[in-house]
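Lecture notes, continued. The same structure-token format from the folding unit now serves as the input rather than the output. Read the line below as a description of shape only.
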């Protein structure tokens, strides 16, 4: 059997394949009616609660923080939580609690277990962020067959049940809880071709929640004339209240203002949420996604009218504001599709996992996936007066791809060579310095040519090799990530996990 996991910012969903090859969701082991795991956790001493457990217990643990939106910290090396013993928990470690929880659900649901597992990642994730997801799976002792991008997984599922989309240009619009991704795809038989990708980091349902939270805080301070409380229980409670009100505003069949009595501590007050004001600010956020869509299409010399189908997925896409925004943009020859926004990614991941299994059902159509580089990839020689990025790999070039750059090195003048590995769309606006390649010292050798090989793999991660271009010998190097006040250590983080009970099981 196989396991596909959509590790989402707000919710996590897992899927497998039934005996007829159809993707099915894996239910919560403690609540068979629940097929979605909230991506939240609470840590209390040697116990941790993930998903629905954490959601149901936060009121009874008023001094504990709900750890949420940790996915936004992937690749930063910054802790997202400190426990009672002041141990730093990183995003990878908290994510592993969620993975471990759904892994346990799958093992209880599948009597024979699973052999192939795939986790999804946002399409715009850079190398460091993708490797953080792989690290989270490693901490959870989940052996991955692959990672696959969320919109690609959704396209796999959509394409598996729609045989009439060959040679069409499909735009997968993935608006989730924490990120926005878009992917342009074509399909030809069993071959799925990604032709371009784009997105907006840190844009999702969280920003819609914050619009509502601002109203709650302002109405409280107006009612009582004191600053809004900042304790953990209040923060947890307001986060949940705001999410529910946001959903109510988003789902309104007829636009209307909403008034609610809200209890904060012992204080009760009425808060009014004006639909027009909320919709105006929400539309500003949706417009940012439109800008990314147009930017992506322009990179290919295309326009929105060239798209045949726009497929909406992700929790935020369930908003009527999002649907109506794009409905107005669609021409008569185009089709707007709202396709299982909360489950399509996990189901597509399960189908992709089956493509790695030689014993998969004969009813599962083999998948040939061809993707492209999300970012431009380049090198910046740090210990040099020449501050220009050497572009090695262009954005939207088919994967896998490799390229090299040769530098003339004089060891008598420098002890170490320092080269920044960079990913970017526009080096002036969104330059990501992933880390520093450090080579040397080279000893008593004369000037030589240093060859730096960079590979962008099919899963979007980057590999690096250094060698002496003159004699072909490999050169050892150290890759140094961004400096942080806290050092991530796999063994130390694994020890934290090994000594904790999760959802009342080890």
């Amino acid at each position: 059997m196989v396991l596909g996991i959509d590790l989402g910012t707000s919710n996590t969903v897992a899927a497998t394949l039934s005996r007829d090859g159809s993707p099915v969701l894996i239910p919560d082991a403690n609540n068979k009616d629940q097929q979605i795991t909230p991506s939240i956790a609470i840590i209390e001493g040697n116990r941790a609660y993930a998903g629905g457990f954490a959601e149901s217990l936060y009121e009874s643990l008023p001094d504990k923080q709900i750890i949420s939106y940790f996915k936004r910290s992937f690749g930063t090396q910054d802790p997202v939580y400190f426990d009672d013993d002041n141990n730093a928990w990183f995003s990878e470690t908290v994510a592993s609690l969620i993975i471990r929880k759904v892994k346990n659900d799958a093992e209880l649901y599948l009597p024979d277990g699973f052999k192939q597992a795939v986790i999804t990642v946002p399409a715009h994730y850079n190398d460091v962020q993708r490797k953080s997801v792989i690290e989270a799976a490693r901490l959870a002792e989940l052996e991955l067959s692959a990672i696959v991008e969320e919109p690609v997984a959704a396209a796999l599922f959509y394409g598996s049940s729609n045989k009439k989309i060959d040679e069409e240009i499909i735009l997968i619009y993935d608006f989730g809880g924490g990120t926005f991704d878009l992917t342009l795809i074509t399909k030809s038989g069993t071959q799925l071709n990604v032709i371009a990708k784009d997105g907006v980091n840190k844009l999702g349902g969280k920003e819609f929640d914050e619009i509502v939270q601002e109203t709650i805080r302002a109405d409280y301070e107006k009612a009582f004339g004191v600053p809004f409380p900042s304790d953990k229980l209040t923060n947890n409670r307001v986060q949940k209240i705001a999410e529910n009100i946001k959903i109510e505003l988003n789902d309104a069949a007829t636009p209307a203002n909403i008034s609610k009595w809200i209890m904060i501590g012992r204080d009760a007050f009425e808060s009014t949420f004006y639909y027009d004001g909320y919709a105006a600010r929400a539309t500003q956020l949706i417009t940012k996604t439109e800008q990314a869509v147009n930017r992506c299409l322009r990179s290919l010399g295309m326009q929105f009218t060239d798209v045949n189908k726009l497929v909406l997925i992700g929790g935020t896409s369930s908003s009527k504001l999002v649907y109506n925004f794009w409905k107005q943009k669609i021409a008569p020859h185009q089709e707007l599709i709202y396709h299982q926004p909360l489950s399509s990614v996990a189901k597509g991941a399960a189908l992709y996992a089956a493509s790695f299994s030689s014993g998969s059902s004969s009813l599962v159509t083999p998948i040939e996936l061809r993707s492209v580089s999300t970012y431009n990839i380049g090198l910046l020689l740090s210990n040099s007066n020449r501050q220009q990025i050497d572009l090695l790999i262009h954005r939207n070039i088919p994967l896998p791809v490799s390229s090299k750059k040769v530098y003339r090195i004089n060891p008598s003048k420098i002890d170490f060579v320092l080269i920044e590995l960079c990913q970017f769309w526009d080096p002036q606006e969104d330059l990501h310095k992933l880390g520093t390649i450090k080579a040397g010292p080279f000893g008593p050798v004369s000037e030589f040519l240093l060859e730096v090989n960079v590979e962008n793999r099919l899963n979007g991660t980057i590999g690096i090799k250094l060698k002496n271009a003159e004699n072909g010998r490999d050169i050892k190097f150290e890759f140094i990530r961004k400096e942080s006040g806290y050092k991530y250590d796999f063994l130390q983080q694994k020890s934290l996990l090994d000594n904790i009970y999760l959802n009342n099981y080890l």
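Point for the exam: The chain has a mean pLDDT of 90.
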